[in-house]
Design brief:
- This protein has helices at 2-13, 20-27, 40-48, 51-64, 66-70, 86-130, 142-145, 152-161, 168-188, 190-195, 201-205, 207-227, 232-252, 260-284.
- It has 292 residues and is mostly helical.
- It has one domain (2-288).
- Helix 2 packs parallel to helix 14 (260-284).
- The chain is globular.
């Protein structure tokens, strides 16, 4: 019973509702015609970027943000993550070590020193993001820019599965995707972050300006998808989402915070759209073929 409770708690820390960015980015470099799903390494890598990687990312985050999380109403579930006591938080770094070391050893064995260095770099990025003297999560705008670390999931995929390097245009789009997803989380966390004295881009510029920043990124992404990748489907979806955000800003919510129920609905909607867009990205292969 205790083991089961600890496993479920670890799963909650990894935030299954927010696995979609790492899974999405991991899948981008694959060509559907290569039958990649027949390779065992693909599945090992896919598993790693779901629970182990996210357990490390969000576990370090939770360990550094106990006060803010204790005040955050959207925490305490599998969608947005755990709400832990000080005693529970104290065990998190040790559990991260136990989970990560076997994968680091295995990937170093199959991928050599280059893959090990890449994974070590991904860990260092998370430490720089969360802990002093850097703690970039409270140094706007670096709290947003450091999210480029998510793009290294694609590099991990390429190294592990011996794939061709994806175009720089794709890296740029994935970076914008990571920035926009992070801003959405900051917007939902403005109130608890302010109560905890936490500085983020959203707490400094305010909810409405943060939404405008998110809108700018969405439209930039839509432009790239349409004119650089000839992808009408993804660009059309982002334009539709942009129209919704305009209504959010000027009609529905304006500068008001979302309720917990609304945030959960948004989280579920994000996962559904992520699954659909993953399927489209693999089917179309558009993100692997820019037109210049």
């Amino acid at each position: 019973m205790i083991i089961r409770q600890n496993l479920l708690k670890s799963l909650k820390i990894s935030r299954p509702g927010l696995w979609f960015p790492t899974i999405w980015i991991y899948l981008v470099p694959f060509d559907l015609t290569s039958n990649f799903w027949e390779q065992p390494l693909f599945w090992v890598g896919l598993f790693f970027v779901t629970f182990p990687l996210n357990f490390m990312v969000y576990g370090l985050n939770d360990f550094a943000d106990g006060k803010a999380d204790s005040l955050n109403p959207r925490k305490g579930n599998y969608l947005f993550g755990a709400r832990l006591s000080k005693k529970e938080l104290a065990k998190v770094p040790r559990h991260i070590f136990v989970v990560m070391v076997p994968f680091l050893a295995y990937f170093s064995y199959v991928g050599g020193s280059e893959l090990f260095i890449l994974l070590l770099f991904m860990i260092v990025i998370n430490i720089i993001y969360n802990y002093k003297p850097f703690r970039l999560k409270e140094r706007p705008p670096f709290d947003i820019l450091i999210q480029v670390g998510y793009v290294f999931t694609a590099l991990f995929c390429i190294q592990l599965n011996d794939l061709e390097m994806i175009p720089w245009q794709t890296f740029l789009y994935l970076s914008l995707f990571a920035f926009q997803a992070h801003i959405a989380g900051e917007i939902m966390d403005i109130e608890p972050d302010k109560l905890a004295g936490k500085r983020t881009t959203a707490t400094i510029i305010g909810r409405k300006k943060a939404k405008f920043l998110m809108l700018f990124l969405l439209l930039f992404e839509a432009y790239i998808l349409k004119f650089w990748f000839d992808d009408w489907v993804l660009s059309g979806f982002l334009v539709a989402f942009s129209f919704w955000l305009i209504l959010d800003i000027f009609v529905f919510f304006k500068d008001k915070p979302y309720t917990l129920k609304q945030m959960k609905l948004f989280g579920i909607a994000m996962n559904i759209t992520a699954i659909l867009s993953m399927a489209w990205v693999l089917y179309s292969g558009n993100l692997l073929h820019p037109n210049f």
